[in-house]
Write a structure and sequence with these properties.
The chain has 203 residues and is of the alpha/beta class. The protein has a single domain, classed as Rossmann fold. Helices cover 38% and strands 15% of the residues. It contains 8 helices and 6 strands, in the order βαβαβαβααβαβαα. Helix 3 (84-94) packs parallel to helix 5. The chain is globular.
């Protein structure tokens, strides 16, 4: 099988994340994708995170609607920084004979050569890149040429769906209608649990 690994904070999971995953399935022929919520991000402050159990549950709500989508709590069960190499090695042990693909947005791809053990990552998986920003084609092509010597890289040319998690959290605190960005059941879950509200100091 062709199996995708998609890590991130998913704080909360929104339509931009789903767009990236659906694009990878359609363009790169992936059979399954595992969404892997981050424990301790090497890129972002964990002070922004709502509880792990809530981020995991929101992912389960969304992924339950697509038979190719799965959720893994591998990173949440550790107490270390969630470097992608550890997750890639974990999935390689589970699926030793399958093709593995690491999904990243173009913003992460442009800094990929600064990731911890990025060369080893590319020796174990192919990289699937989906644009998340308008007008980044030239930068993507330049980075593609630089990193291709380390392994296989697949770059989608599909039009990006530009959505900011920070802006979503801000609008949630302002009690705005976000059904165009979030699954309606995720919105209900957030409201029920009081996540991202201004009075609980969670962002």
């Amino acid at each position: 099988m062709r199996i995708g690994i998609y890590g991130g904070s998913f704080n909360p999971v929104h339509s931009g994340h789903i767009h990236l995953a659906e694009t990878a399935v359609a363009e790169f022929g992936l059979d399954r994708i595992f969404f892997v919520p981050t424990k301790i991000s090497p890129h972002r402050s964990v002070s922004e995170y709502v509880p792990e159990s809530d981020r995991l549950e929101m992912l389960k709500i969304v992924c339950g609607k697509n038979k190719k989508f799965n959720v893994s709590d591998f990173e949440l069960k550790t107490n270390r920084v969630s470097y992608s190499i550890y997750t890639v090695e974990h999935f390689r042990r589970i699926f030793p004979h399958d093709e593995l693909f690491l999904l990243v947005g173009s913003d992460m791809f442009l800094s990929f050569d600064r990731w911890y053990q990025f060369e080893k990552i590319l020796s174990l998986v192919a990289l699937c890149v989906v644009s998340r920003t308008e007008g980044d084609t030239d930068e993507l092509n330049k980075k593609y040429r630089k990193l291709s010597e380390y392994g296989d890289i697949l770059v989608s040319r599909k039009q990006p769906k530009v959505i900011s998690s920070t802006e979503i959290r801000k609008k949630l605190r302002e009690n705005c209608d976000l059904t165009c960005y979030l699954d309606e059941n995720v919105v209900q879950y957030i409201r029920l649990k009081g996540l991202y509200s201004a009075d609980n100091n969670k962002r």
